[in-house]
Amino acid sequence: MAYQFCYRRRVEFSETDMAGIMHFSNFFRFMESAESAFYRSLGFSIIHQDAGAGWPRVHAECDYSHPLRFEQEVDIHLLVKEKRRRSIAYLFKFVTQEAGETLIAARGSVVAVYVTRSPEGKLNSAPIPHDFDLQIESAPPEKLAQW
Length: 147
Prior knowledge:
The chain has helices at residues 25-41, 130-133, 141-146; strands at 4-10, 47-48, 53-54, 57-64, 73-83, 87-98, 101-113, 115-117, 123-125. By secondary structure, the chain is α+β, with helices and mostly antiparallel strands.
């Protein structure tokens, strides 16, 4: 069962401000990209078109400690903090190299709830699908403590 994943991205020009520094809002897009890649690595998608189901976010936050710049590569580490019956909480760490030094540029978290859509279009929380539930687990306490 999986509880961690790493996804590498490069900061694109469109993701930066006039100083060439990645705009803070793009850290959330990078977290979502890492989450989607994690799902794909397990053979799933973040959205289930046929079932009218998906994973909207109910909480997201990010703390920044070092800027990311245009064309800089960053590894987005994902850790499953907690898996409940209807939701998953993720931790993210943005790790980059600069002048031979490993830096943590930011740390974030996201909580996503599994929902299905009724015939009327209303979203309702639902239990995580069984096949998905079997493949993902919460990180062990020692991994969380190291985070």
